[in-house]
Amino acid sequence: MSEKIYTDYLIIGSGVAGLRAAIELGSHGNVLVATKDLPTESSTEYAQGGVAVALSDEDEIGIHFEDTIKAGDGLCNEEAVKILVSEGPERIMELINWGAEFDKEGSKLAFTLEAAHSRKRILHAHGDSTGREIERVLINKVSSLERVTKASFTMAVDLIVEEGRCYGALLLKGDKIIKCFSKVTVLATGGAGQVYARTTNPKVCTGDGMAMAFRAGAYLKDMEFVQFHPTALYAPGIPAFLLSEALRGEGARLRNINGELFMKNYHHLGELAPRDVVSRSIISEMVKTKSTHVYLDMTHLDENFIKKRFPSIYSTCLRFNFDITKQWIPVSPAAHFIMGGVETDVWGRTNIEGLFAAGEVACTGVHGANRLASNSLLEGLVYGYRAACAASEYAYRRQNISNSFESKIDSIEASEISKMREELRQTMWEKVGVIRCGKSLSQAKTKIIPIYEKMTEKFFIDPYTIELKNMVVVGLMITEAALARKNSVGAHYRTDYREKLPGWEKHLRIRKKDTTVEVF
After folding, report:
1. Nearest-CA neighbor of 363 among 388, 375, 346?
2. What single DSSP character describes residue 15?
3. What is the pLDDT at residue 406?
4. Which of 388, 427, 483, 511 is deepest in the core (most CB within 10 A)?
5. Is the confidence at residue 170, as pLDDT, over 60?
C-alpha cells in the first residue's frame, strides 16, 4: 500500500545546496526536505579544506574568476563562474550573520592557500571542519522555519513525471511507498563517488538524483569529468579517508615508496599543481615503483601547528594508528567529485518543467573540466539559493498537481545485489579511473551493460537495490561520455588521445532514448 502527501516544495537531499534552498523557500510555502539518512549525512559534513571566497584584503573577485576558469581547462561556463564568485561573498556573510564561526587571526577572518589558487582565499572553521560548521548553521536556520519539515531515512525512488513535467517523487519510508506530489521538486542529492571502489564520499553518495533525472528524461552533461582527490589514506581495511588539499597548501610534501620527492618532475608548481595533475603524477609514480601508494610527509612542520590547524585529520589518522606529526602517511587517489550532472541553467532549471537541481548533482558548467579546490561549498550556497528563487517563481504559476502513478514491485536476491555492486565499483576504479583509454573504457562498458539491463526497467523498494540501480546508471553514463570524448582535457585523461584535439570545446550531453543511451 502507498499513501499520498502534498507539499508546495519537495527538496531531495540535505547537504549545503538543499538546506540553502529550503531556507529560501520556507517563506514561500510548505517545504519537505527528504533525505535517505540523517540530515547531517552528506558530503557537506565531510568537507575539510574550506570554502573559497574573495573576501581577503589581497584578493579580488576577478582573480577568483580567473583561477576558476584556469582550473576548468577551457570548459567552464563563464556566466556561471561570474555568478559564483560575485555572489559568493554575500552568501558567506549571510552565514556569518547566522552564526557561522570561521577561524580568525585576531579580529580578521583567516584565509589559507590551496592548489591552483593564486591568492589565500580559503576560509576554514575549527581548522578542518568547515563543512560541518556550515551544515550546523544551515540546519539551525532550517529548524527555526515553521513551514519546513525534514523527513529523515526517507529515500527518493523515482520522480513523478508526466508529459515533460515533474509532479513530485516516489519516496520510500521503511517498506512504505509515499507518493509525494509537489508544485516544484529540487534535486540536491550530491555526488556519486560510491560508483568507485575507492572514494572519499560518504556511503549515501550513490548518484541517486542523476539517475532519477536521467530515467525521467532529463539531460546529463559533462559526465566524463570525475575529479579524483590525490591524497586519500591508503591502508588495507581502512576507508579512503580524505587528507585535505590544505595539508599541501600548508607545506606537506609527496614522496614515493623510496622516500623520494617527485612532484617537481611532473609540474613546476609541485605539490600545489592542479588536482588532476597531482593524481596522475601519483599514479605514474606508483606504476614506476610498483607500489600501491605514495607518502604524504608533513613531519617537517611544527607539531603544535598541525594539531591546531588539522585537529580532525590528526585525531582520525591517530585512530587508525597513524601519527601525521611523526610519520609519513600512505596515500593514493580516490574518487572525490563529479563536475558533470543534471544539466541546468544558472537558475537551476532542468529541461523538465518543475524540476530544479543544485549542488554537485547539477551541472551549470561552473567547474568546467576540473573543479577548483574548495569551490563546491560555495557552489552549493550560491546555486541552492538561486534554484530556490527560480522555483518559487515557477510555483506561483503552476497548474494542477497530478495524482497518478502505479508500478509493479520487483526484487533481486541480496547476495546477487552485493556481487553486482562490487563488480561495478571495481570495474569503474580499474577501467574508468584516473587514467583511461579506449580499450579499458570498452571493457568497462561490456561489464556494466548486463547489470544496467538487469536493473533499469524494474521497480524496487529495497534501498540497497535502489542504490545499485542508480549507481549502474551513473557508471554507464560516465563510461559512455568518456568513450565519446576522444581527447584529454581537465580531469578526463586518455592515454590514446593525450592532447586537446579539434572539437575538444564541445560539451557532451546524455539522455535516455527508449531503452538505450544517446550521447549528443
Report:
1. 346
2. S
3. 61
4. 388
5. yes
Q: What single letter denotes the amino acid at residue 360? A: E
Radius of gyration of the chain (CA): 22
Q: Which long-range contacts (CB under 8 A, 24 or more apart) does 286-293 make?
A: 286/256, 286/257, 286/332, 288/256, 289/256, 289/257, 289/258, 291/256, 291/257, 292/234, 292/332, 293/234, 293/257, 293/330, 293/331, 293/332
Tens digit of pLDDT for each residue in 447-483?
999 999 999 888 999 999 999 999 999 999 999 999 9
Strands 294-297 and 329-338: antiparallel
Give the Cα separation of 25 and 8 in Å (integer).
9
Please check the confidence at residue 259 and state whether its pLDDT lies above 70: yes
Computed over every residue of the chain, the mean pLDDT equals 93
Catalytic position from the list 91, 132, 253, 275: 275
Q: Can you list the positions of beta strands (E) in 310-450?
A: 329-338, 341-343, 355-357, 362-363
Secondary structure (3-state) at 22: helix
Strand partners for 255: 261, 295
Grid coordinates of 378: 560555495
How would residue 207 be classed by pLDDT, with cut points 50, 70 and 90? Answer: very high
Cell of 31: 517545504
Contacts for 259-267: CB closer than 8 Å, 24+ residues apart: 259/295, 259/328, 262/294
Query: Which residues, at least 6 apart from 21, have a Cβ–Cβ distance to it below 8 Å?
Result: 11, 186, 188, 358, 384, 385, 387, 388, 391
Please classify residue 402 by burial: count the beta carbons closer than 10 Å to its beta carbon, then call 0-12 exposed, 13-18 middle and 19+ buried. Answer: middle
Q: How many CB atoms lie within 10 A of CB 170?
A: 20
**Structure confidence at residue 353 (pLDDT):** 95
Q: In the annotation, is 248 catalytic?
A: no
Confidence class for position 27, pLDDT limits 50, 70, 90:
very high
Q: Which of 56, 55, 52 is nearest to 67 (CA)?
A: 52
pLDDT tens sequence across 301-360:
999 999 999 998 999 999 999 999 999 999 999 999 999 999 999 999 999 999 999 999
**Cβ(201)–Cβ(193) below 8 Å:** yes
Contact 253, 297 (CB under 8 A): yes
The answer to whether the pTM exceeds 0.85 is: yes
Give CA–CA dist 28/121, Å, rounded: 34
Dump pLDDT digits (tens) for 404-443.
656 667 888 889 999 999 999 999 999 999 999 999 999 9
CA–CA separation, 115 and 111 (whole Å)? 14
Residues 6+ apart with CB under 8 A from 260: none
Beta strand pairing status for 176-187 and 2-12? parallel
Residue at 358: amino acid letter:
A
